[in-house]
Design a protein that fits this description.
The protein is mostly helical. It has 7 helices and no strands. Helix 6 runs antiparallel to helix 7. Keywords: Membrane, Transmembrane, Transmembrane helix.
Length: 194
């Protein structure tokens, strides 16, 4: 279910940016396989470690904190290396392996990719502090506001990331520049209203 929703979501963002229209179901069908693998692989990788820790909770090794620290570092390295992968799958309309190669290539080069990744992460961390405080301390209104605000902000950030990846990737379709959205038509109706 998660893979189908993610495939439809990312595919729809790309379609909206490139054509001004989208078909969620068609995107979900078209990109389901790579998003299924992106969803299942982390689960399959983490499950044995989680089971081992859970089943041996009373006899954990003395260096358990160090082991967890190493896994946290490996997690962040993996996220950095694979950050552009779902965007490249839909932008290039390519296989998962080609998208992973492209994402790792951007990550190794650093530059704008590294700056964007760090800026994105810093922004999410900053916003999370205030959003969490609001959602927790203002019972019903905070929860509703957090769901709506988080959804809108998440969509805006994914659209921005899709445009960013398209900008730095020569193999992605032209979705317009930041100053002039043509041929990307995501901002239809937002132009000159005189």
């Amino acid at each position: 279910m998660k893979a189908a929703l993610a495939a439809g979501y990312f595919g729809s963002i790309k379609s909206q940016l490139t054509t001004g229209e989208y078909d969620f179901v068609a995107s979900a069908r078209s990109y389901f396989a790579p998003f299924f693998v992106l969803t299942i692989v982390p689960f399959v990788v983490v499950l044995p470690f989680a089971l081992r820790i859970g089943l041996n909770a009373t006899t954990l090794p003395t260096d358990f904190v160090a082991i967890i620290g190493v896994f946290i570092v490996l997690f962040f390295i993996s996220v950095y290396l694979l950050y552009a992968t779902p965007y490249l799958v839909v932008l290039r309309d390519t296989s998962l392996l080609e998208a992973i190669r492209g994402s790792v290539s951007f990550a190794v080069r650093g530059g704008p990719y590294l700056s964007y990744f760090l800026g994105y992460g810093g922004f999410v961390l900053f916003i999370s502090v205030f959003a969490s405080a609001f959602v927790v301390t203002v019972p019903v209104i905070g929860l509703v506001g957090g769901i709506i605000g988080g959804g809108v902000l998440g969509l805006a950030m994914n659209i921005t990331t899709m445009r960013f990846v398209a900008d730095i990737d020569p193999e992605s379709p032209d979705i317009g520049s930041w100053d002039n959205p043509e041929p990307g038509v995501a901002q239809i109706g937002l132009g000159d209203r005189s």
